[in-house]
Specification:
With about 80 residues, the protein is mainly alpha-helical. It contains 4 helices and 2 strands; from the N terminus they run βααβαα. Helices cover about 50% and strands about 10% of the residues. It has a two-stranded parallel sheet. The radius of gyration is 13 Å and the shape is globular. The model has no long low-confidence stretch (mean pLDDT about 95).
Length: about 80
């Protein structure tokens, strides 16, 4: 199977695919040069958004997550 791209949601998924040293906080939303798919990216798990304690932080995190998904959509075209 050769996917058009891979979007990894959360640190557990990212580390399982990219290795234990991968940090979502450091490489979030970046298109990574790995040979398992034409593009691979990682972002937070959506559940992390609701774990923020205040509304402003949740909204900011939701916007960043949406930006990460736009990166995936653009790369998949």
């Amino acid at each position: 199977m050769r996917p058009r791209g891979i979007a990894l949601l959360g640190a557990v998924a990212a580390k399982a695919v990219l290795g234990p040293d991968f940090r979502v906080t450091r490489h979030r939303g970046e298109l990574l040069d790995v040979d398992i798919a034409p593009f691979v990216t990682a972002t937070i798990h959506p559940a992390a958004i609701v774990r923020n304690r205040d509304d402003a932080a949740r909204q900011a995190e939701r916007r960043r997550f949406a930006d990460d998904l736009r990166t995936v959509a653009a790369a998949a075209r």
